[in-house]
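Students often ask why inverse folding is considered easier than folding. One informal answer: many sequences map to the same fold, so there is more than one right answer. In these notes we will look at a single instance of the problem. The structure comes first.
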């Protein structure tokens, strides 16, 4: 009989299979599409299909910026939250791995007990006694259906998704730091140009007033010139506010007061510049690199594993255990009459009438939702990247056109100034030409700021920096 029991158990173990589907990226998932694997924005001359550098902000070759990023990565509160979430997810994996298998326990107790006589088929009252027990037990739970393994798979996939979320937080932080620093530099540069333009307009106001007083002009010209002066002066607070906003953003990202930011941060007046064509890689590399895609894919894997966990609830749990101990009157503990031991298998089965099959259907529906989300993240990643490339290309074209116009305005200002020195142009004409040149400088500075911000948005879309 013993041999037959062992043989039956062996056959049962050999016949067991993993419940639920084995995970793999579905063949009909969007990420498998061949048209998404090729080059990005093939008609763009402003980028090159080269690997995106991990530390893309080093392309600016700005040591102050590198230090800002380094300090932000070391102290940012969002990354501290992400690190704690990763530690929690890893602990959950360890918890899942510890389920089933070998378990042991010790039970010790003592009590003053009035036992029921009828419980022992005795008509008389059982005396009150001091009863104690000491039991050591051990058991081994067989993962016959792979339910526990599916639980480990789900926990590990969730941990991977949490790591990907932390990577997203990291690249977002880096982009925010570079963007805030660029905002400070741009605001300072544009403020200086606007202040210079304001000075020129002030000279224009003074000149038109003198011409009016000399009878060579009228009040309308003076009013028009004063209006332009006031309009330019009204722009100055905007640049100051942008500078302060950038500095306060850096302060929060680095978790430091303003006076502890790296030296010279607030005085930066030259935009960070990348002196090369931007490397953007290709679609296949993008889909592997972006952490939000990895997070969605790992969430799909976790959802798939939960189908197996839910399916395993349909089948019985089988374990084998043993225990040894002593139970009886305290004074007699350890005597042969109080000793007990046991060994044998245990089968526990909850008949699946309590919604188990509904839980399987719910898990399957969650998997379909995770797949749809995964597809959506992939498509959104391609959209963001292609849109950023198109916008960046347009910003470069506009910047180049304004640079050409700025050179023409400078040439015109130089020519007018020479004519003025030769007596062939008036001082007012010379002043207006210089004003036009200064205005073009301001427009070019704003365009350069937009290009710099476009570069940051592009690297963020490319998923660089994790």
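Output (designed amino acids):
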């Amino acid at each position: 009989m013993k041999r037959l029991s062992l043989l039956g158990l062996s056959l049962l173990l050999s016949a067991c299979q993993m419940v639920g589907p084995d995970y793999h990226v579905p063949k009909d998932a969007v990420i498998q599409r061949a048209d998404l694997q090729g080059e990005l924005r093939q008609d763009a001359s402003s980028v090159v299909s080269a690997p995106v550098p991990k530390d893309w902000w080093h392309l600016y070759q700005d040591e102050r910026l590198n230090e800002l990023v380094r300090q932000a990565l070391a102290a940012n509160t969002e990354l501290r939250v992400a690190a704690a979430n990763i530690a929690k997810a890893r602990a959950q994996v360890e918890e899942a791995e510890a389920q089933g298998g070998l378990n042991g326990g010790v039970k010790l107790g003592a009590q003053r007990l009035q036992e029921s006589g009828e419980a022992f088929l005795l008509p008389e009252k059982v005396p009150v006694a001091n009863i104690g027990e000491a039991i050591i037990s051990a058991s081994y739970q067989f993962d016959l259906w792979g339910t526990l393994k599916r639980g480990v798979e789900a926990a590990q996939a969730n941990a991977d998704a949490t790591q990907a979320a932390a990577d997203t937080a990291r690249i977002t932080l880096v982009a925010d730091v570079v963007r805030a620093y660029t905002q400070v530099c741009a605001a300072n540069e544009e403020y200086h140009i606007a202040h210079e333009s304001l000075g020129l307009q002030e000279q224009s106001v003074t000149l038109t007033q003198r011409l009016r007083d000399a009878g060579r002009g009228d009040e309308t010209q003076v009013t028009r010139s004063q209006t332009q002066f006031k309009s330019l002066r009204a722009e100055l607070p905007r640049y100051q506010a942008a500078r302060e906003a950038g500095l306060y953003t850096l302060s929060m990202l680095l978790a430091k007061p303003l006076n502890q930011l790296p030296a010279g941060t607030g005085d930066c007046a030259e935009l960070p510049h990348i002196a090369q064509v931007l490397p953007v890689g290709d679609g296949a590399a993008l889909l592997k690199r972006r952490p939000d895609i990895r997070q969605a894919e790992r969430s799909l894997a976790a959802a798939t594993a939960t189908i197996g966990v839910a399916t395993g609830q349909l089948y019985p749990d089988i374990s084998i255990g043993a225990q040894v101990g002593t139970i009886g009157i305290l004074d007699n503990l350890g005597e042969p009459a109080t000793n007990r031991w046991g060994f044998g298998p245990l089968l526990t089965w909850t008949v699946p009438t309590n919604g188990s099959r509904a839980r399987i259907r719910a898990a399957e529906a969650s998997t379909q939702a995770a797949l749809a989300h995964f597809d959506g993240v992939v498509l959104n990643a391609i959209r963001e990247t292609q849109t950023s490339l198109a916008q960046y290309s347009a910003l470069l074209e506009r910047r180049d056109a304004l640079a050409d116009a700025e050179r023409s305005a400078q040439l015109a200002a130089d020519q007018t100034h020479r004519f003025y020195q030769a007596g062939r142009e008036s001082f007012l004409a010379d002043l207006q030409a210089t004003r036009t040149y200064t205005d073009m400088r301001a427009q070019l500075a704003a365009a350069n700021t937009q290009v710099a911000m476009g570069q940051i948005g592009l690297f963020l879309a490319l998923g660089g920096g994790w």
